[in-house]
Design goal:
The structure is a single chain. The chain has about 120 residues and is an all-alpha fold. Helix 1 packs antiparallel against helix 2. The termini are far apart.
Length: about 120
């Protein structure tokens, strides 16, 4: 029998990768249980599972911070970025209006320059 000296699977992972794997597994199991309880009509606002999910998320953030420090990357700012992008409609409207005004003023300048250049010919 040939015995392999290389470890495969979980043992081959670095300690940070092992922690990430365990956290993802714990979060997945708890998420499934959360879904089950929701289908049974259980109110989860004060349920101990909510605290457990929050605890797992806290450790996920800690591992992410440690991982970024080990890689020499700038660590996260400490706040959780939104999971979806939002658009400030009023700011977007201001940008568009200003951009259109600038385009109109450039067009007017071109019109003034073009007749003058045609008269010189």
């Amino acid at each position: 029998a040939v015995v392999s000296t290389q470890s495969t699977g979980y043992e081959a992972l670095s300690p940070i990768e092992q922690a990430k794997s365990e956290l993802v597994t714990a979060y997945t199991v708890n998420s499934l249980y959360w879904s089950f309880l929701t289908t049974q009509g259980v109110t989860l606002d004060q349920h101990p599972l909510k605290k457990e999910m929050d605890r797992i998320q806290k450790y996920m953030r800690k591992v992410k911070l440690l991982e970024s420090e080990l890689k020499g990357v700038r660590p996260p700012t400490g706040h959780n970025p939104p999971t979806h992008q939002t658009i400030d409609k009023y700011a977007a409207a201001r940008f568009i209006k200003r951009g259109l005004k600038k385009e109109e003023s450039l067009t007017e300048k071109r019109r003034k320059v073009e007749p003058a250049s045609e008269e010189q010919r």
